[in-house]
């Protein structure tokens, strides 16, 4: 039975640091992403403390949305988008993160972007912080390890809420906030990069640092949600995690418990705080296992209770198997590694493709929280080739079709699903490697790993397919 509700938010998602470019335009400050070089699957990205002339920094131009936003939003409008998820570059609004007043030129840029969205009937969904912060703030405060960063974030969040509340209804406080506790590349999770220069995959922080930094992010998020609820009740505030579906490698009870622990620690820990307003019952066990002793100041737990979100969202790309027994071959992924599932195929980058896992993720999430859910990232990173002026990405169409079918089944199960924004709707820089060749979009951008390219936009076959899907509200998938 066809189940997508009227007003379903079909669209796509991007991130400023991977898409926007204009890294030093109109008063924008340097962000931590602007200090990251390119890399590949074989060569690591580097973080540097200064811009080196002989290195390529992909975020400096990226896909150059800063100068192509009218063209890009017009293309999204042509596809019929109902929703465009994008992030605001913190350092475009507060160049060092420590100013008392925002950069007006930066605010005006997003005014123009949101006005274009409104022109095409596209609902903006804004991520306030998507894996970046001003470099000077990170260097001064050692990122989220300092409580001072909470106040800087809240000042930034309040400034953009004050400015755009009448243009933006849907907000997410942090992108994939659970990365802070699991990801070894701490630069994207907590921005803790003081005095570090070297390959990003060699950055290491203690579990104590990561969980403490995450607590500060929880407080910052709750204060922002509380401010929005009190001042702009028409705004809907959400959280976001990277959903990591974990299956037991075998029916061995030990594997079952391992998978349960994986789901608790990597999925429910952050969600419980932001949705229920309190640390979960298993938090004490988790802290003990990681030898963590949180510094929680007076009032922190109250603000967590007062700043719970209106909806929850997640990214979903893959699933993994976990456990002591069973398949021993490891598989890579977006945020973590696990064991290979013999029933699944994998992408060009080795990520296991599991559409049914999305139905599982939606049901598990909605069963636990009973608030509206949105899939705000999902997509296939692949090598795309231009043949006779076209990109025939049937593999991407197949991937999206199967995941959308599972979303429909989840709504039939009873899940309150608000929308779907596929990742990288217009080709952008990969966050993990800095590559352009790992393409996700329905729109090809003529830009390559060496920084060359005309930046021309080309509609892929998936552009026309997704256009039909949106126009039919999900009825036409073939």
From TrEMBL:
Keyword Protein transport among record annotations: no
Q: Which UniProt keywords are given for this protein, alphabetically ordered?
A: Glycosidase, Hydrolase
Q: GO CC annotations?
A: cytosol
Q: Which Gene3D superfamilies match?
A: Glycosidases
The answer to whether the entry has keyword RNA-binding is no
Q: Which Pfam families does the UniProt entry name for this protein?
A: Glyco_hydro_1 (PF00232)
Q: Which GO terms describe its molecular function?
A: beta-glucosidase activity
What biological processes does GO assign it? carbohydrate catabolic process
What family is this? Belongs to the glycosyl hydrolase 1 family.
Name of protein: Glycoside hydrolase family 1 protein
Q: Which organism is it from?
A: Wansuia hejianensis
